[in-house]
Amino acid sequence: MITAARITTLLRGHVRTAPFDEAVRRLTDHHLLVLTGDEGVGKRVGALAILAAVSGPGLSVTSLPPSRTLIELAGGTFQPGRGYLVRDWIGDRSSSALQQFDVDQLRRALERPRHGAYLVLTCQLRPAQRQQLADVIVDWTPPPPVAVFDAHIRCAGIELAPDQGALMRERIVDLRRPRDVVAVAERAGQGVDAAFAVLGEADHQQVVDWFDRKPEPRPLLSVAALCFLDRTPDLLFQNLLSRLVVRVNEHAAIDSVTRTPTATAAGGAFPQQASSELALDTVVIGGSGDTGGHRIRTFASPHHHERVIAELVRQYGFELWEPMRIWIDEVAALPSSPIQVPLAFGVALLGRHAPDEVESFLEEWSNGLAPQRLTAAYILSWMCLDDTLAAMALRIAQRWTSGAGTRRAATAAMAFAGELGIRYQNEALNKLWHLALRVVAVSDGAAAALGVLLCS
Prior knowledge:
three-stranded antiparallel β-sheet; alpha/beta; 456 residues
């Protein structure tokens, strides 16, 4: 449930965008609306604003899981006058003719006089789906950034000096996502630099500049390893980094035999021995009492982590990523330890830039050794920190619960006991209850997971 009070908070300072009136008209006429657009353009808040405009003040909204198909939605029970929201809808993969039938069924279920309910789905729609949903689709665009900024500082009662306000508005124009504008506006009273620091723009540029200078192989591999070993004790980090260097050199040797001798994607042959220094200005080595006096490897800024992964994906290809995949597989298969947590976090971040790669890891590990299955469950939990990846994580876990084997079912049970189950509570409870009735190899873990989820 999204309460009326929560909706009021979310809509404070809301600025209506160009498609708003058309979206309200279509939802009023059809009781069904599909808001489609790029990630981060404000579809969720826009959907709540549209539902509030159609249903009036005091509206409460029921949030439904993104994995529901059209026919499953049509078979649900809708309450009169209530609003419903499916955020980051995964979509329906049925045939065009069947999908058209399902759309008609859903619209009739919503339009029945005794129901009179309103449903909004937000998604990034595939071209093949547009024909069946043409009457209810609205392409969403973000509101003007300066208008959002002004609305939020006005609601917060923040007064800016004229020169400071002009400078902030000049930089605000370049922001694409409304959430970034709101984050800056909330800190506007702290000054220009402090307000924009929340976005990590300087940190991102630092990483881009470092990669543009074409780093040497050693620091490149160090920072690549750190993406999957963040905050790992230094001795363990060095040991695992040495394994990565070996894998890269083996791959380079095979490449020179099967084709012609070539330099690696890093711009030169990788060294046979890993040196001890870490020559990268975006990485620091720190120690604290929390680590028992051990030195740990971590990024200098939390904004560096994802940006480094993005640049690795953007600038490097098979020569780097093939040995990296082999090395990541090896780390996932190590005996269960806290190292699975940062490894899973790194793989989840990779999902923002290479989702197919992550799904490949998940399919293999979910049916693999116990440490690999644990890592796969952790990955699904970390994916829930990203709205788009959360929907993907739910779809994958649901697929593992039926007809995918006992190991994958047990992995899904572990995942539903964590952040995935907290985010999608009804789906998790139903799936865990179903899994608890299966064979012992699955039921014991599912029962334990159900208890953990209820405690959470």
